[in-house]
Design the sequence.
């Protein structure tokens, strides 16, 4: 079997995995952060867990670019956009967390890292070998321009929302408070909303099936989690703002 056939099989399975993940997460929240619970085996420090989980997403694309040897303008631009997110997420974000030192079941970073290997391979093997070359004129294509705008908007929303959550805790604190201001006026999880907008932007700017897969998987993963967070806020705080939605302003 040649690589293209293997790749197509993996991509089709990945779309199937998205459906299974969405269904599973509607009933069982991934056991980390506020949804941590016993019974998931050995645990790991949460900072280390984030690095272990996200490092493959930051590093594998660089390996695949080197292996593909396609050092043209658009490949470089795709890598810069991707790494703007993942270098921060893998190697900066874990050290900024307030509430460091809590434990996460090893299962969470291991399954996250495996997903990131699959997603990195699907996305960057496509961009560096299997897809036809994107010409430099792709920079002015409306799909690229719209995708970059969405990605940048999502990136800013995600960073700002994560920063607002950090500001709720003093160093060493671990409890939960009601976040206020910005998009928190409308939704409980603007960080997840920003992440979703980012990867929708990536799907549009690459105009690719692996890009679409990642956007759908992000929705499958984060929408059920946002609904779980939203329920948790309402349970914890009797004065939680009634008009606030979970993850999509005015909608959900
Ligand atoms: N692409 C993807 O599919 C994907 C998947 C997962 C995460 N992410 C991204 O990774 C980042 C972190 O994800 P996450 O699931 O850990 O987000 P989260 O549940 O919103 O938590 C983010 C951080 O803020 C703390 N926190 C949350 N709510 C708080 C509150 N009300 N008061 C005080 N502190 C609060 C959390 O502490 P605790 O840990 O103690 O709860 C955690 O340190 C986000 O930007 C998210 O978009 C992306």
Sequence:
């Amino acid at each position: 079997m040649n690589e293209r056939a293997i790749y197509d099989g993996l991509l089709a399975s990945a779309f199937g995995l998205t459906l299974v993940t969405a269904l599973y997460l509607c009933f069982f929240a991934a056991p980390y952060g506020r949804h941590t619970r016993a019974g998931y085996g050995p645990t790991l420090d949460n900072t280390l867990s984030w690095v272990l989980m996200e490092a493959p997403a930051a590093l594998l694309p660089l390996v695949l670019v080197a292996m593909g040897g396609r050092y043209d303008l658009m490949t470089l631009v795709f890598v810069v956009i991707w790494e703007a997110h993942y270098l921060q997420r893998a190697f900066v974000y874990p050290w900024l967390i307030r509430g460091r030192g809590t434990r996460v079941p090893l299962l969470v970073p291991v399954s996250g890292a495996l997903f990131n290997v699959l997603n990195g391979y699907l996305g960057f093997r496509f961009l560096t070998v299997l897809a036809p070359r994107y010409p430099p004129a792709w920079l002015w294509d409306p799909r690229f321009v719209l995708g970059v705008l969405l990605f940048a908007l999502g990136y800013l929303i995600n960073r700002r929302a994560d920063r607002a959550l950090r500001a709720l805790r003093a160093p060493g604190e671990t409890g939960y408070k009601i976040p206020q201001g910005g998009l928190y006026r409308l939704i409980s999880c603007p960080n997840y909303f920003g992440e979703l907008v980012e990867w929708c932007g990536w799907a549009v700017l690459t105009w690719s099936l692996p890009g679409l897969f990642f956007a759908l998987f992000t929705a499958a993963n984060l929408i059920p989690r946002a609904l779980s967070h939203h329920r948790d806020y309402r349970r914890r705080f009797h004065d939680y703002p009634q008009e606030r939605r979970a993850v999509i302003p005015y909608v959900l």
